[in-house]
């Protein structure tokens, strides 16, 4: 059975996000649920009603935009993924799926990763380029 992407539903959600206020501000090293939406091909998609996926904030450019790496709970031990630990969770950052997002997409904060973990993540991302 193939997965059918619901672009129409995501488009309606995206309109709501666009016209809404910025409710949250992310900071480097924070892990957030983020409304990433439905994307093309192998680009990472969000799930559930909010088209959401966890992301870790790599950088903030200003109050409106951030550089994020999507996370997956599926263990991936290759050069395109990097494990991060926060709270009781281990996730894998998808190093090839970095993207700039609007702060309007941030839904709720999950946690923060410690400075050492964040430094290792940033190095892994830079080395993957």
Describe this protein's structure.
- The chain has 129 residues and is α+β, with helices and mostly antiparallel strands.
- It has one domain: SH3 type barrels, CATH 2.30.30.110.
- The chain is built from two helices and seven strands; from the N terminus they run αβββββββα.
- Strands 1, 2, 3, 4, 5, 6 and 7 form a seven-stranded antiparallel β-sheet that branches.
- The longest helix has 13 residues, at 7-19.
- The termini are far apart.
Tags for this model:
single chain; 129 residues; alpha+beta; SH3 type barrels; 2 helices
Summarize the structure.
The protein has helices spanning 7-19, 115-127, and strands at residues 30-35, 52-60, 65-72, 81-86, 89-94, 99-102, 106-112. The chain is an alpha+beta fold. Strands 1, 2, 3, 4, 5, 6 and 7 form a seven-stranded antiparallel β-sheet that branches.
Q: How would you summarize the topology of this molecule?
A:
Elements: H1 7-19, E1 30-35, E2 52-60, E3 65-72, E4 81-86, E5 89-94, E6 99-102, E7 106-112, H2 115-127
Antiparallel strand pairs: 1-2, 1-7, 2-3, 3-5, 3-6, 4-5
Q: Which stretches of 5+ consecutive residues score pLDDT under 50?
A: none
Give the count of structural domains: 1
CATH first level = Mainly Beta
| Secondary-structure-derived class | alpha+beta
Content of β-strand = 35-45%
Determine Rg (CA atoms, Å).
Answer: 14 Å
Shape designation: globular
Arithmetic mean pLDDT: 91
What's the CATH architecture name? Answer: Roll
Q: Specify the number of helices.
A: 2
Helix content: 10-25%
Give a quick account of the main beta sheet: strands, pairing sense, barrel closure. Answer: 7 strands, antiparallel
Query: Would you give the CATH topology?
Result: SH3 type barrels
Order of helices and strands: HEEEEEEEH
Can you count the beta strands? Answer: 7
Ends apart, CA distance between termini: 34 Å
């Amino acid at each position: 059975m193939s997965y059918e992407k619901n672009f129409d539903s995501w488009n309606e959600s995206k309109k709501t996000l666009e016209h809404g206020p910025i409710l949250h501000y992310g900071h480097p090293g924070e892990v957030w649920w983020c409304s990433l939406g439905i994307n093309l091909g192998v680009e990472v998609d969000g799930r559930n009603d909010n088209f959401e996926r966890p992301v870790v904030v790599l950088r903030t450019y200003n109050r409106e935009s951030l550089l994020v790496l999507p996370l997956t709970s599926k263990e991936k031990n290759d050069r395109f993924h990097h494990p991060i630990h926060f709270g009781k969770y281990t996730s894998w950052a998808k190093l090839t799926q970095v993207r700039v997002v609007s702060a309007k997409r941030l839904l709720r904060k999950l946690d923060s990763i410690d400075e050492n973990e964040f430094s290792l993540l940033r190095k892994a991302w830079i080395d993957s380029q």
